[in-house]
Amino acid sequence: MVNKDWLKESERFNEVAEYYDKYRPSYPSTLIEQIVQEASLTAESRILEIGAGSGKASELFLNRGYELLCIEPGPQLAELGRQKHKEKNVRFVTSRFEHWSGPEKDFDLIFSAQAFHWVPQPEGYAKCGRLLKPGGRLALFWNFYLQGESNMEQQIAEVCAQYEVSWFNKLEEIKRRVDRTKSELSARDEFGKTEVYSYPWESRDNAESFINFLRTSNGFIGLPEAEKNELSSKLHEIIDRNGGILHRHYIATLFIAEAMNLAES
Q1: 131 neighbors 106 (Cβ within 8 angstroms)
Q2: Confidence band (pLDDT; 50, 70, 90) for 118?
């Protein structure tokens, strides 16, 4: 595989903002409730979101009445979020998190959904530690896409791998990714013990909605148009031949840690 430009890859989602908003999945309500409980959120809590996109995860907090400050580098994604949630108590700032300056020890909760892996480390963890109030929480969560064992899922995974559009993981790979993220966060002096929670869930897609979901992936966005058409045709054929409905399996995983009250340097 050719080495890819990390910064360019992280900004490609803005090219497909409308697809991203419509076809990216949301997150289980129980995951959000766990964050609310652990962070002891109130109506006055200061909450920062990193990599908000068009506000998919933001919505789950806004609908509960919380105020959000959302950092999103993609101007089209950020504008979608502003328009969708203009009646809510939210502000979108168009910036990369590492370039944004905010007041230290100001936030009760910082969260990031499906985005924190695009933040340079270890600077990202260190900055979150500075921005959080002592006792505040850092909550990071992802939908990990689990490859099922059905013939259709195996065929789809093989075709996606051929085009380097891989959105499925075996359970063992998900466990390795979870362990790696937990180890990274646990090693940071800015935070106390890291708690991990998992929430299995699934969705149903027809061929069109699944392909439109893939349109939001870096791999698909970067394909030449002819290869996008080839891949779409192959996926249509597989899904239609197998009954027309794909059950997509996820393991939504939450990592949450408390900010420590470190002595001033």
Answers
A1: yes
A2: very high
């909605």: which residue's tokens?
209
Count of beta carbons in the 10 Å neighbourhood of residue 119: 19
Instruction: Report the half-sphere exposure of 31 (CA within 13 A, side-chain side).
Output: 25
Q: What are phi and psi of 105, to 5 degrees?
A: 50, 45
Q: Mapping DSSP to helix (H, G, I), strand (E, B) and coil, where does residue 52 land? A: coil
Within 13 Å of residue 69, how many CA atoms lie on the same side as its CB?
17
Spans of all domains in the chain: 6-146+170-202+249-259
Rounded to an integer, what is the distance from CA 84 to the centroid of its chain?
18
Digit-coded pLDDT (tens) for 39-72: 999 999 999 999 999 999 999 999 999 999 999 9
What's the pLDDT tens digit per position in 220-264? 988 999 999 999 999 999 999 999 999 999 999 999 999 996 644
Strand partners, 90: 68
The CATH class of 6-146+170-202+249-259 is alpha beta
| 4/237 Cα distance (integer angstroms) | 30
Prediction pTM value: 0.92
For 190, 231, 253, the CA distances from 260, given in Å and listed in that order, are 5, 48, 23
What's the CA gap between 78 and 189, in Å, rounded? 32
Q: For position 264, what pLDDT does the model report?
A: 45
What is the Cα–Cα distance from 257 to 184, expressed in whole angstroms? 12
Closest CA to 59 of 34, 86, 95: 86
